[in-house]
Amino acid sequence: MRLIFTKGAGKMDRLEMIHADGRSEGLDCPKQRIIPHDMVHYAVESVLGARGFIARVAAGEVAALTMEGGRESDGVERLVEALQGDGWSGGTAPAEEVRDLYRVTCEARGCPMLPVDAAAIDAIRARIAELTAEWEAVPVGGAMEVEF
After folding, report:
1. What gap in Å lies between CA 122 and CA 110, rounded to an integer?
2. Entry pTM
3. What are phi and psi of 27, to 5 degrees?
């Protein structure tokens, strides 16, 4: 599946998801000072091979902001949240602190953690850094495409 992120001028960016059969789905993505939320999903899911929002849509589920959760996808969502929090604070916390934040978030929401260690956190952060550099170079109205 092709993911096309378009940088908006206002409070929203846009994600278009193009399936192998040519079908297209789109979502508005609220700006959040770092890369779009769904781009963080892409980083987490592509590095870990985990089944979260992007993988579920690629497998045929309809993209919606209110998709029903599942054990693995809930774990992905909590990890995305922890990595967003890390990004908002500069992305310099030790990987174990990010993992601890992830654990606390999972415990608070009653969902199982994905099996991530410091090396996995570092690998995801490296992918997020690559995506961030690419995204920062995209002008307003421009787009960035990745393959999932």
Report:
1. 25
2. 0.92
3. -140, 145
Which residues are within 8 A (CB) of 108 and not within 5 positions of it... i.e. 6 or more apart? none
Instruction: Name the residue among 53, 57, 96, 59 with its Cα closest to residue 75.
Output: 53
- How confident is the model over 54-112, as pLDDT tens digits? 999 998 888 766 667 677 889 999 999 999 999 998 888 999 999 999 999 999 999 99
Label each residue of 22-33 as H, E or C.
Answer: CCEEEEEEECCC
Please count the structural domains in the chain.
1
Please, which residues have CB within 8 angstroms of residue 47's CB and are 6 or more apart in sequence? Answer: 120, 123, 124, 127
Cβ atoms within 10 Å, residue 60 = 9
Q: Is residue 95 a contact partner of residue 121, using CB atoms and an 8 Å limit? A: yes
Question: Alpha helix (H) ranges present in 49-91?
Answer: 53-58, 71-88
Cα R_g (the chain), whole angstroms: 15
Q: Quote the domain boundaries for residue 139.
A: 2-147
The single residue listed with the structure tokens 């890390």 is 86
